[in-house]
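for the writeup, i need someone to sanity check this before i put it in the appendix. the sequnce is what the collaborator sent (i think, or maybe the updated version? ugh). structure was predicted straight from it, no edits. if anything looks off just tell me and ill rerun, i have time this weekend
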Amino acid sequence: MDKNAILGSLLIGVLVIGYFFISKPSEEDIIRQRHISDSIQQVEFNRQLRQQAEEQQRAAQNDSLQHILANNDSAAVALLRKDFGAFAHAATGKERITSLSNNRITLQLSNKGGKPFRVFLNDFQTYHGAPLQLLSGDSTQFGFLLSEIGKSTDELFFEPSEIFVDADSTQTIRYRLAVQDSSYIEFEYTLPKNSYRVDVQINTPGMSRIVRDSRYQLLWKTYILNAEKSRDAENQNTNIVWKYYQDDVERTDARTKDPVKEDLSGQVHWIGFKQHFFSSIILAPNNFERGGNVESVTLPEGDSALKVFTATVFLPKTESNEISFYFGPNHYPTLKAQGEDLEQILDLGWFGFITRFAIIPIFNWLSSFLANYGLIILLLTIILKMVLFPLTFKSYLSTARMRVLKPQVDEINARYTDKGDAMKRQQATMELYRKAGVNPMGGCLPLLIQFPILIAMFRFFPASIELRQQSFLWADDLSTYDAIVSWTTNIPLLSSIYGNHISLFTLLMAGSMIMVNQLNTANVTTTPGMPNMKVMMWIMSIMMIFWFNNYSAGLSYYYFLANCITLLQTYIIRRMVDDKKILAKIEAHKKTPKKKSRFQTRLDEMMKQQQQLQKGRK
């Protein structure tokens, strides 16, 4: 390692340690943070005012309808029956909220629609410290669409039962909408102890003669509330995911801001309203019938919600159907434990098998005895680097062979300088490599084998709920960006591309990447007509600063550690490998007689044909 590389490493180390011990927020930072907090509180306050106004409006409408019925206004009653048909008696009432709760979730249910009203996850909070709420209350819709009256059971008042608690602390409540004689619609909710699952038994005895449709159409709609630090990052990881029966999952495009509507072409096993770190999933053990659709609408900046998700599915027209809800974290072991392939709601990319079978088990094992996730990422990086060290060593040896042959390659390039000599130059270079027993691609293959792991880690860290709200050094949340400097003024182009903050882990990652590239490309031979690799690496490092500034701090920290370990490994390997001995072995190898492989023979024949064609054209 040269002096510049050593000096750069020392400076970065001093910067990290110094910042950790002496950094503290200035008075301006405190005022700015207070201003942001006040703005968030104002948005929430406005949302609550809007919600209260909607509740008062609905209450006034219900009071008006109840007044009409109480005064026995025959014309008004007839109009009400015309609108609601056999369900007119349930068109008015007073909304009452009932809660079922265990140590995992608190489920609030409303007698209006007999539906899930709100869901709170007891072990989690939003980035700003508020209770984490999945369903958004009054804006949540759930129920049957009744084509007879053009309305939903979501608008009708059900009669709740008492909460029944069995010996295992499982809680059950029933919401019944009586229609005629013994005909009714009933939603029975069961919340087991220590579970994120809510089982729902839907009973519809006698309803087949009242509902004209050939099957029941079920609507579920809710607003997805903002819960994380970065609205943009949360938006880009919030979408609808569904799984067909005995088939793969499909998902809507989370990054588009246009409304999305997708038809469900087959039997659907489950549909998930996926947020960045949490999901609300509806499941059917016997699958939903063919048909239906899902819709996603992105809300404008400044709204307390991110998106509006809607799912319309079909159930068979039987007297009993079973469904269930999962309200919980996007935690791989927790999702997998549900036994419904729910872990597939996580988009782990093309190399997700590496994440599932290697990265997650190691990560969870380290988490079992360590609480500091900065140290966990450090140990995870060291383990992966140790496993990959044989490939790294093999790649370095191949690079070293190419390096000691560089003077001879330069001599060949100097011998064939004309444009018409390109074929001869290439042929002479390949002949040199063949005699020396050097594969010019030998250094690339081990790197290509490591590439899937880099991609797997790239998808793992931003999706890892374990890093959510975990602090390390100056980063208060490893699942999102670490801002050492931030501003509120919108700077044209810069704010949209780079953001309104500076991430220190991103700068450290880019700096270490430059040092690695400088070390690896110091003796790289530049072939005439080929791009300059050193320049390309510098451009890539600068692009990383813009690209990763809004990414997970845990991801940038991992890449920074990986680069530092690469520098250390390179230094150790260089002390172990003697270029003179490598050159001596190559020269000895040249003297031994060699038989051309079939591939080399065919390659030589192709080159000769190309040379003849060029002579013919001349």
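The chain has 16 helices and 21 strands. The mean pLDDT is 79.
thx in advance!!
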